[in-house]
Amino acid sequence: MPLRICILETDILRPELVDQYKGYGLMFEQLFAKQPIPAEFSVYNVVEGHYPPEGEKFDAYLVTGSKFDSFGDDPWIQKLKKFLLERYENGDKLLGVCFGHQLLALLLGGKTERATQGWGVGTHSYQLTQKPEWMTPALDELTLLISHQDQVTQLPENATLLASSDFCPNAAYTIKDQVLCFQGHPEFVHDYSRAILELRQDYLGEQVYNQGVSSLDRDHQGAAVAEWMMRFVARDHAPESS
């Protein structure tokens, strides 16, 4: 049986990007199609108030990136936090990317805030601080496309750091066998990163923009992270999916 993954979409793309990229839910579906573990996906846009039907069961819940601040007091964010805390207390597996990474850290006892380092954009590399068996394929370091001005500045007490850099010390973490989160965007493709850099050029400033664009010459390992995520979820899934 394939894994059943609920994607909680926490953004609505800018009008200039919708025709080509649709939304983060579709980006993740396209990403996970590149990895070998069978999975099927249901996407719910929580900004618009959409959630799975009561009683619907999934092997994991993935919280996407967003232009919103994870520490914001928007009503939809408060509702999402309540939903995720219920899932966590129920023992469900939770995956987070960018906003999701930050929100879950905040929800489970960590700290998230506007980063003094400023905007992170383009392609970024991290050192891996742990390499558990489910992190297959094995990598010497992790490179991902990024776009964020907030960071997790303190991990929850029971979290284990997985990846770090000078710019982003808390770049990936796990909480036991239940939570797996990444600051970088495995679902991004270079053309999307370039498009959002163009749209934010004036806001970012010339130096950050130019550095971001030039870094897009480098490859990234989003497909490997997608496989890590599915292996993390699949460990307790019967029958074995890989």
Question: What does this molecule look like?
Answer:
The structure is a single chain. A 9-stranded mixed sheet has the order 2-1-3-4-11-10-9-6-7, sandwiched between helices. A two-stranded antiparallel sheet has the order 5-8. It starts with a strand and ends in an 8-residue tail after the last helix. The protein has a single domain (3-234), classed as Rossmann fold. The protein has 242 residues and is an alpha/beta fold. Helix content is 32%, strand content 26%. It has helices at 15-21, 24-32, 75-89, 99-107, 190-199, 201-204, 206-215, 222-234, and strands at residues 3-9, 39-45, 60-63, 93-97, 111-114, 120-128, 141-148, 150-154, 159-164, 172-175, 179-182.
Percent of residues in beta strands?
A: 25-35%
Helix content: 25-40%
Rg, please?
17 Å
- Bulk shape: globular
Count the helices. How many?
Answer: 8
Question: Which strands sit side by side, in order, in the main sheet?
Answer: 2-1-3-4-11-10-9-6-7
Class inferred from helices and paired strands: alpha/beta
As for the CATH topology, it is: Rossmann fold
Outline the low-pLDDT stretches. Answer: none
Largest sheet entry? 9 strands, mixed
Q: Based on the structure given, which CATH architecture is correct?
A: 3-Layer(aba) Sandwich
Distance between the termini: 11 Å
How would you state the average pLDDT, rounded?
93
Domain count, please report it. Answer: 1
CATH classification, class level: Alpha Beta
Order of helices and strands: EHHEEHEHEEEEEEEHHHH
CATH evolutionary superfamily: Class I glutamine amidotransferase (GATase) domain
The strand count comes to: 11
